[in-house]
Specification:
With 310 residues, this protein is of the alpha+beta class. The chain is built from ten helices and ten strands.
Amino acid sequence: MELLATKLFQGDIEGRAACLEYAAYFETLHEDTGDVDIHLYYCDSEGAPTDPIGTFVIPLRDFDSSWLARFWSLYQRNREFREGAISFYRIGNYQRHQKRVRIPLPGAGEETSVDAAIAEAVWALNAQGFHTLGASAGGALSRAYVSSEHLPPELEQVAEAAGFRVANGVIRVVVPMSQPVAAEAGADAFCRMLNDWAAGNLAAGREYAGWQQAIRVCNLIPLPQVPQHRERSEAVTQLIKKSLKGQASFQDYAKLRSGRDGFSRATTDALIEELGFVRKVCSQAAVYARQAYHGSEAAGQLVVPRADPA
């Protein structure tokens, strides 16, 4: 991937200097294939990033710098939103960290390091002659997988039915990096499937496929709507005062107008002059109407009217 753009937003979180930095990468720009890595840091007194808070990823096709600026503003000032964002994107300490353990390899007199969540399953695979080349229990920012020269056919069949990718002796959870919650749910289902197989209790694929419901349609956390304050006009202010005193009359109400009534008293010519394109649109519409009325002969002789010199 090539670097497309990068930017740093400064700020503070509950009085502590902080920043948000993003880096946008692309593969094929016109197809919007790429990712935007978003990093959050606490900063020193000079504003330089020091302590990482966390990282999350969104697809390049969803990236909007104005959305990100609003996200950063809310993340700093709104604790409830910040906690929701941490959960939504699995930022920082919200992530689960896999514990690693060492297990013996049956018959080889050697040991290997593996995630504790699938240690028994990896041992069982090797004990039955399926020598593993690698395995991971996965999580929000990593993808669960197991790799071997070949795997049990019944395990591959169930894994495929459960929505995991199965190919060339590898079973893995395939989810975009922008879907940390789905990746976590997939990892849980993957580990449960492996451990059920090791215990001789492998269920049908549908029993593990529910993790796919965690895949989100939108990769962006919803941002709260910003209420827009509209100043009252003098006419409205005076009407309110009179109304409270019981003195408002019909003439007072007649003076009011909505924000869309700025041209309500303008003449037709004045409106057309304000909206210069209207005459051309109306003329073009008339041509299409004549074609529709007179049939195919007129349809082949479309004449686009010229705009007025004015």
